[in-house]
Amino acid sequence: MDLGITGRWAIVCAASQGLGKGCAEALGKEGVNLVINARTQATLEQTASELRRACPGIEVHTVAGDVADPKVRQALLAACPQVDILVNNAGGPPPGDFRDWGRDDWLKALDANMLTPIELIKAVVDGMAERGFGRVVNITSGAVKAPIDMLGLSNGARSGLTGFIAGLARQQRLAGCNVTLNNLLPGAFDTARLQKTLKAAGGDVEVTAQARRKAIPASRFGDAAEFGAYCAFLCSAHAGYITGQNLLIDGGAYPGTY
Ligand code: NAP
C-alpha cells in the first residue's frame, strides 16, 4: 500500500534507537523527510547515516539534546521546513516506590512525558490545520491502560498526556482540517530499555525474559520495525478518520475486552 506521504516532513523525537528509530525508519521508507533527535550525538549521527543509506532520496537532519529542554525543541522545529508529522517520544521515567519520590522526580516525569509533547504539539498543530494535513503520534505505554505499580511516574505522567490528547484531538478546528492526534501504546518490545528492565529484575536474564514472553499471548516480544509500521500507517494519507485513539500494540497482553 502506498501510504501517500512521500515528500512530507516529520519530526521524530528520541529516535536514535528502539521504538523511535523504528518509526523513523518506517516513515523514511515511505519517502518522508526526517528530523530526528536523541541526547547522544554519536548514536544519533550513526542512525541518521543508516537512514540515509536505507531510504535514498530523503533528507535526514539531526538535532542532538534532551527533548525536554525548550532550546532543543526550538532547534527541532527550526530544523524542519514544515512539520507534517510529529512523533513524540522520550525515555520513560525510572521505576520505584512512590514513597521515595519527591516533587522534583514528579516534575521531571511530567516534563518529559507530558509537558514536552504538549509544547511540541502547540507549536505545530495550527500550521498543520491551515495546510489541511497533520499527524501527531505520541508513544506512550500499555501501562496507560493497565498500570504497572512500579512505574507510578510513568502511569501518572502518561495518563495526563492521554487525557489532554483525548480533548484536543476532538477540536473541530483540528479534526475538521485533517489533523489527527493518536497515542500508540507499546507492550513489551525488544529494545535497549526492555533489556535494562530485564537485567534490573535480577537473576538470569534469559529466564526472566522467557517468563515474560510466556505471559504474552503472542509468545514473544515486539519488534521496533512492526511498531514503526503501525506508526507510519497512522501518519498516512489513509488515516485521516482515526483520531483521539489509544492504540495498543502488545501481542494481546492487555487482558480486557475494551
Ligand atoms: P530505548 O530503546 O531505550 O530508546 C530510547 C531512545 O530515546 C534512544 O534513542 C535515546 O537516546 C532517546 N532518548 C531517551 N531520552 C531522551 C530525551 N530526554 N531526549 C531525547 N532523546 C531521548 O527505549 P524504547 O524501548 O524505544 O522506549 C521508548 C519509549 O517507549 C519510552 O518512553 C518507554 O518508556 C516507552 N515504552 C517502551 C516499552 C518497551 O517495551 N520497549 C514498553 C512500554 C513503553 P539517548 O539516550 O541518546 O537520548
Which descriptors apply to this entry?
258 residues, alpha/beta, Rossmann fold, 2 domains, seven-stranded parallel β-sheet, 9 helices, globular, binds NADP nicotinamide-adenine-dinucleotide phosphate, SDR family oxidoreductase, SDR_fam, SDR, NAD(P)-bd_dom_sf
Please give a structural write-up.
With 258 residues, this protein is of the alpha/beta class. It has two domains: 7-186 and 222-247, 3-Layer(aba) Sandwich (Rossmann fold), CATH 3.40.50.720; 189-220, no CATH class. Helices cover 45% and strands 14% of the residues. It has helices spanning 18-29, 41-54, 70-78, 103-131, 152-168, 172-175, 192-200, 205-214, 224-234; strands at residues 9-12, 33-38, 60-64, 85-88, 134-139, 179-186, 246-249. Strand 4, helix 4 and strand 5 form a beta-alpha-beta unit. Helix 1 packs across helix 9 and helix 4 runs parallel beside helix 5. The radius of gyration is 18 Å and the shape is globular. It starts with 8 loop residues before the first strand and ends in a 9-residue tail after the last strand. This is SDR family oxidoreductase. Belongs to the short-chain dehydrogenases/reductases (SDR) family.
Give a brief outline of the structure.
This protein is of the alpha/beta class. The chain is built from nine helices and seven strands, in the order βαβαβαβαβααβαααβ. It folds into two domains: 206 residues, NAD(P)-binding Rossmann-like Domain (Rossmann fold, 3-Layer(aba) Sandwich), CATH 3.40.50.720; 32 residues, no CATH class.
Which structural class do the helices and strands define?
Answer: alpha/beta
Main beta sheet strand tally, sense and closure:
7 strands, parallel
> Gyration radius, to the nearest Å?
18 Å
Present as ligands are: NADP nicotinamide-adenine-dinucleotide phosphate
What would CATH call the homologous superfamily of the largest domain?
NAD(P)-binding Rossmann-like Domain
- For the record, what CATH class of the largest domain applies? Alpha Beta
- Spatial strand order of the main sheet: 3-2-1-4-5-6-7
Organism: Pseudomonas putida (Arthrobacter siderocapsulatus)
Protein name: SDR family oxidoreductase
InterPro entries: NAD(P)-bd_dom_sf, SDR, SDR_fam
Family: Belongs to the short-chain dehydrogenases/reductases (SDR) family.
